[in-house]
Amino acid sequence: MRRFLLFGVAMLCGGFAAFWLLTQPSPLPPSVVAGLSGDATRGEAVFHAAGCASCHMAPAAEGEAKLVLAGGQRFASPFGTFIAPNISPDPTHGIGGWSLEEFANAVMAGVSPEGAHYFPAFPYAAYGKAEPQDIADLKAFMDGLPPSASPSQPHEVPFPFNIRRSLGGWKMLFGTGDWVVTGDLTEAETRGRYLAEALGHCGECHTPRNALGGLDRSRWLAGAPNPDGRGRTPNITPAALNWSEADIVAYLTSGFTPEYDSVGGHMAHVVDNFARLPEADRQAVAAYLKRVPPVP
């Protein structure tokens, strides 16, 4: 019995050690951003394409107030309620004291400056496909935004989902850096893929998830229940979205559908962001959507 107990303890310790090793946060190699210098003008386009203000502006902010990234918006999900943090350049309550390397680790790898995992409500699985130069440009733009002294609020995530160390396992399962749509893409389709799969993180809302919250890449952009349990995000694969490329461009510019209905919900923020990009980018997204495999 004593040997059996010792063996059990050894197995338990070994299992815990393996879990601790496999789930440790993995920051980016310093070489990823070494020598990069950000350009705020280019970073403004990255900011809008990535939808940063849509989640991190204060609740009900309008106009120029959307650029004050004070956080506070609440996002309900089956795993708890996530509250967007302050990511303004305030050095105390925001991210004003972060280096480019720390910023890139957060955005692209989901690792905090303290070396902890971020929850994947922050779409770093998509942003991880971004070009490091775009991330440097994004930081340069965000550094010039108005600071806010509003403290970030803690997420309301119950046990066991609040065990951040377990997110290392989630990243191994679902944090793939592979593109979903592959093949011989045109230049426009390739640009559209970058905007939709990386910066725009369209799959985060439009793709169904499994029980662990991972995206079902076999049903890419096929629609999904809204995380808060109210309503559904539509299928935007060619099986359901029969708009022409011109229709898609017009929608991303004006918010009006071909049937003269108007955009609503969180998609209104997406349209507002994409309307600020060059028309060539909206055309690229439209071309990409036509290459997405149709899913009934």
TrEMBL record:
Q: Which UniProt keywords apply?
A: Heme, Iron, Metal-binding
Q: Does the keyword rRNA-binding apply?
A: no
**Gene3D superfamilies attached to this UniProt entry:** Cytochrome c-like domain
Q: Could you tell me one molecular function GO term of this UniProt entry?
A: metal ion binding
Kindly name one Pfam family recorded for this protein: Cytochrom_C
Q: Which residues form the Cytochrome c domain?
A: 38-146, 187-293
Q: Which PANTHER family match?
A: ALCOHOL DEHYDROGENASE CYTOCHROME C SUBUNIT, BLL4482 PROTEIN-RELATED
Q: What is this protein called?
A: C-type cytochrome
